[in-house]
Amino acid sequence: MPGPHPVEGSVGVSGMSTCLEGLKEAHGRPWPKELIALGPEESAQQMVLRRIQELSDSDQQDPFMLADLDILASRHQAFCQALPQVSPFYAVKCNSSPWVLRVLAALGTGFDCASQVELEQVLGLGVAPSRIIYANPCKPASHIRYAARHGVQLLTFDSEEELTKVAQHHPGARLLLRLRTQDSQSIFPLSTKFGASLEACGHLLTSARDLGLAVVGASFHVGSNCQTPQSFTQAIADCRCVFEMGRGAGHDMSCLDIGGGFPGTEDSGPKFEEMARVISAALAQDFPEERGVKVIAEPGRFYMESVCTAAVNIIAKKAVLEPGGSRKLMYYLNDGHYGSFRLGHREPVPRVPIVVKEFCSEPPLFPCTLYGPTCDASDRLFLEDVRLPELDVGDWLVFPSMGAYTSSMSCSFNGFLPATICYTMGPQLRSLLEAEPESRVG
């Protein structure tokens, strides 16, 4: 496992950043204090170092997260370039920050919502209902009624019971039949909970027709952080069979949702470009463009993971001797499993943080257990140890690529509040957000 990478240079960074307080949007609302405008020579990493210095000089060494919204815009561009035939519908559950959603609305993405609250968030930005898919196959009746009242028509289902609810509460819905996939190789598989078997699809399509419901296509999800791009190939081929069954049952099948599962970083596992090539080839074979099928996807991790950097402080420390006399360190941090590291237990390889400390020479490394701040003994960042130098109480660790499923899953267990979040934005993105809303929402 690689050792730490100390941040080079002084933590004290001079710069020209300006808080955008008082600057008005086209909507007439002020830009919030947590939004920082970067100058031409500034970077988000410099802002992380500056914030660490500010907190180190104060009485509150609280954890924080910095989100670089320019990276979010670049990820959207990368997705559209790699998969030009696929319309992205961002998975709101991945990170539902108002600034994230506002930027994506300005960039023209659609949105994948899973609840009434998420629908309210997106609709509240002025996003048209046609740019939303309510992609939870098992929905509360009250949430279905909310979608119907507000014009959100595209819904997913995977059971006869769900069809009955939709027929009662949203008969005008346009439905996608969610298909079960082989996702056992994904880091976070989903098919044990959602998706109909291919064998059950014919009956479900007939039931929908008999209830007077319109099925307009099929959807699937290969699991979050998919490790096998070929999972898309089989799922897309299965959806072609569903389309044929749907047309045989009298449905106008015109929409394919290939879900999410795209990697957030390229540190391990398949690269996004490789996955995009596999998907493009499968679509060309089973859903060629001349057939006029609209293809959408639900990227979340791909958009958000590299956007955020987390900074945590060592609040306590213990040194213990292992059997055989080897030395081990235990660091207690001010953020953990109940905060930004909820998914750390499920990641196959622990993340090695950047150490914000200068050393005169290459320091020796020790096995280190990273614990969170609560009184729960299972509150540790990762199940495995990482190798770090000996550090002191008050030192800082920085974890890049922490934007996916972190802030959205944080809670305040034991009274430890989630990490605060600051946002940075460059001049080009600021200009886009200052544009008239009618030019970007519709």
From TrEMBL:
Pfam families per record: Orn_Arg_deC_N (PF02784), Orn_DAP_Arg_deC (PF00278)
GO biological process, one term: putrescine biosynthetic process from arginine, via ornithine
Cofactor names: pyridoxal 5'-phosphate
Gene Ontology, cellular component aspect: cytoplasm
Swiss-Prot/TrEMBL keywords: Lyase, Polyamine biosynthesis, Pyridoxal phosphate
GO terms for MF: carboxy-lyase activity
Family of the protein in this entry: Belongs to the Orn/Lys/Arg decarboxylase class-II family.
Name the record gives this protein: Antizyme inhibitor 2
Record organism: Papio anubis
